[in-house]
Each structure stands twice: as C-alpha cells, then as structure tokens.
Amino acid sequence: MNSARDTFGHSRHTSTTAAGNYVEGVTYFGYASRTARAAVALHARVAMYKVLWKEGENASDFLAGMDQGVADGVDVISISMGFDDIPLYEDPIAMASFCAMEKGELVSCSAGNDGPRLGSLHIGIPLVLTVAAGSIDCWFVGTLTLGKLTISAWSMFPARAGVANERLIYNKTISVCNSTQLLPTDPYPSGIIMCDNTWPFRKQIATIVKSDLLWVSSSLMTLKSEYKFFPFPGVVINSKDA
C-alpha cells in the first residue's frame, strides 16, 4: 500500500506501546481481561514514517524517514527494526542517529527478540537508548484433561478443543518436533504428539503449524513469556507433570 498505512500490524503495535490512552476491558480472546494503556506517554502524539516496503529494506528509505522526522521537530524517534550483519560505521541507523543526536533528538531502538546468547543485542549502538522487552504478571492458564487426570498448564489457544480415541505419542525422534513430517507412516498414523524441550520452542511451534497435525500437546518445555503465538490446540506443561 503506497501510503503510511501499516499493512502488517507491527507499527500499530509499537505505536500503541509508546502512546495511547486508557482502554478498559481489553482481552485476548478472553485471556487477561484488564485495562490497557501506553507504556511510555499516554497523551503523546505519534508521527509515523513508513520505511519498509514490499520491495525490501533499503537504507535510503530509512534515512529519508529519519531526516523527515528530524525536520518535523519530533521529540523522540522510536525505531523497532534493524539492519543485520552490518558494521557500525556502515549501519544506516547509527549514522542517522548520530545526525539526530546533533539536532537534540532522543533516538530509542529495540534490543531485538533473538539470541542466540542471553544478553545479545540486535541493535547495540552507543548513540541510542536501547530498550529491551518487558514481561507481564499474567499466567495464561489452559486445562489439559486426560480421562480422570486434570493438569493446569500454560496455553493461549483461544477455544475449547477435544480429541477422542487418540493415543499419546512420545518418541525421541518424533518428539524433537523439528520436522513437518511428524507422522509419516505406521506405527504412528495419528495421535497427540508430546514435544520435549530439545529444540527451541518458537521453532517447534512454527514447524508444527506447517505439518499436517490437527492436535499437539507440547510438554517438557520451559515457559518463556514472550511466546504468545499459539495457533493450534495444545498446552505447555511443567517437567513434573510431564
């Protein structure tokens, strides 16, 4: 869309984190009903500059957006993107942030959501305020019922679901959940797959989504609060219950 409109949703997400008034009764399909508000400035005004397009991520577009923000006299420039594997002296964000700093602008950038190591940064430019994601004090509870056994677990699947007459399947090869071919042939034609924590949770979720499974029980995993993508019936249970 050849306008400043956001077609992906990321810019709306980051904008409402920065600015936005109180909204009562906000839920995610019934989870976590409460009042939402901006984390930074309730009554701030947002000027959005679109610098990412279907054609790709170009330094010239980014620099043009930063220049325009400085020219418009914004107070804070917030950036939730980055250029991978570029030296600091060639990074468009670093160069533009230096120019913005000379004009008295505060530049804030996201630290990024990827590792691989604890404490690693997507953007670690000394000229900007690097902001890490926070966590919330919510526990999104799902209930797993297996016959007479009931387990409270973590889930964000937004509906009730039931599967009858299917076996529980745990197999060291299959339960890594790193292949879309989870149920290739007999002796496992169908069933409820239990994934263990030998592969990154996010990658397991993405792999399972691409497979032809209808139901997956995700067990033996360490909960990470930033993972909210849960497109199929399933739960994350602790090691003791597993």
Automatic annotation (TrEMBL):
Domain of life: Eukaryota
Alphabetic keyword roster: Signal
Gene3D superfamilies assigned: 3.50.30.30, Peptidase S8/S53 domain
SUPFAM superfamilies: Subtilisin-like (SSF52743)
Domain Peptidase S8/S53, chain residue ranges per copy: 3-133
Pfam families: Peptidase_S8
Family statement: Belongs to the peptidase S8 family.
Name of the protein this chain belongs to: Peptidase S8/S53 domain-containing protein
Organism listed in the record: Ilex paraguariensis
